[in-house]
């Protein structure tokens, strides 16, 4: 409701009527649909289409996710999923504040009226986690599947953006003296912080960024499996060594022995912690088939000339 009202306010400010038009009506007559005597306003999904057009920034995907979630949940109560949806919900609030102030000025900011939500416990008992998982298998199964499918379809750049999902670890902040007006929690925007600021925060163990890898609903393949599928669609011979050269060229995963083995491009490659190796997506296979089908590109990427089959 808040997002819909904000979009309507933006359109009115721009002298655009956010109303549905009738189809096939004489332009000189009443062109708009009415409900109980009032113009029928655009709902949130239509507002998003009109506002963003062909652009798909993380904040748009965030709203589309929440609209779908609302439609999926309807009037059901599924508190067992609340903890897993915090990131998207918090991002929606911060995005609302950003758009509100950018369009109407800082005097309309909500910072003084809203604060960070309070938590009643530091730990979630293992029994409660187990119960939540059992509940998720029942009434919340459809909602859980929707969430996993939506997240799985997002590029890593969107999934890891705080505009889509705001995920943080809270670290106790201690001070000898503190003014009453000071906030107990401070947000640091990781995508806007300078390199020096990030290094300082990391040393103080204050800022920890959680990385999400979009692996839901994606077919993942071991290196030998990926090589076999790529080889089948290429006009040239292809092996594991050439595949290694390709992932080096496109930098989809770190080198063996890197301190952060999970620093992959989630669209193409995922680090499997359990087996300490890497899995490759269908998108990666399709990319290499397309890129390596050209003889010149094959040599540039792999460092070797393509040998016809």
Structural features, described:
The chain has 309 residues and is mainly α. The protein has 12 helices and 5 strands. The strands form 2 sheets. Strands 3-5-4 form a 3-stranded antiparallel β-sheet. Strands 1-2 form a two-stranded antiparallel sheet. Strand 4 (269-272) and strand 5 form a beta hairpin. The chain is globular and about 70 Å long.
Helical proportion, percent range = 40-55%
Percent of residues in beta strands? under 5%
Secondary-structure element series: HEEHHHHHHHEHHEEHH
- Please report the distance between the alpha carbons of the first and last residues: 60 Å
DSSP E strands, number: 5
Radius of gyration: 25 Å
Total number of helices:
12
**Major beta sheet, strand line-up:** 3-5-4
Whole-number mean pLDDT: 79
Largest β sheet strand count, sense and barrel closure: 3 strands, antiparallel
Which outline best applies?
globular
Q: What are the low-pLDDT stretches, counting only 5+ consecutive residues below 50?
A: 205-218
Going by helix content, strand content and strand pairing, the class is: mainly alpha
What features would you highlight for this structure?
mainly alpha, 309 residues, globular, 5 strands, two-stranded antiparallel sheet
Topology:
Elements: H1 2-13, E1 34-35, E2 38-39, H2 44-52, H3 58-73, H4 82-104, H5 126-136, H6 141-152, H7 156-159, H8 195-203, E3 220-221, H9 223-233, H10 240-250, E4 269-272, E5 277-281, H11 282-292, H12 295-302
């Amino acid at each position: 409701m808040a997002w819909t009202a904000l979009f309507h306010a933006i359109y009115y400010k721009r002298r655009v009527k956010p109303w549905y038009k009738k189809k096939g009506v004489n332009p000189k007559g009443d062109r708009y649909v009415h409900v109980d005597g009032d113009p029928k306003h655009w709902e949130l999904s239509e507002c998003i289409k009109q506002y963003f057009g062909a652009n798909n920034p993380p904040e748009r995907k965030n709203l589309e996710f929440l609209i779908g979630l609302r439609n999926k949940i309807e009037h059901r109560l599924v508190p067992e999923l609340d903890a897993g949806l915090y990131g998207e919900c918090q991002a929606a609030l911060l995005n609302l504040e950003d758009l509100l102030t950018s369009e109407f000025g800082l005097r309309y900011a909500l910072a003084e009226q809203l604060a960070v939500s309070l938590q009643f416990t530091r730990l979630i008992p293992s029994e409660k986690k187990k119960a939540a998982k059992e509940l998720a298998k029942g009434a919340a199964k459809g909602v859980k599947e929707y969430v996993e499918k939506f997240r799985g379809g997002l590029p890593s750049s969107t999934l890891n953006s705080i505009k889509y999902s705001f995920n943080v670890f809270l670290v106790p902040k201690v001070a000898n003296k503190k003014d009453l007006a000071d906030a107990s929690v401070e947000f640091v925007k990781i995508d806007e912080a300078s390199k020096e600021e990030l290094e300082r925060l990391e040393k103080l163990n204050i800022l920890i960024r959680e990385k999400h890898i979009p692996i839901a609903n994606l077919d993942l393949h071991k290196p030998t499996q990926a090589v076999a599928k790529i080889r089948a669609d290429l006009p040239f011979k292809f092996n594991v060594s050439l595949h290694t050269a390709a992932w080096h060229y496109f930098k989809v995963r770190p080198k063996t022995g890197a301190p952060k083995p999970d620093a992959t491009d989630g669209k193409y490659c995922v680090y499997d912690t359990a087996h300490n190796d890497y899995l490759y997506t269908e998108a990666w296979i399709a990319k290499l088939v397309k890129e390596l089908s050209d003889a010149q590109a094959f040599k540039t990427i792999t460092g070797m000339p393509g040998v016809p089959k």
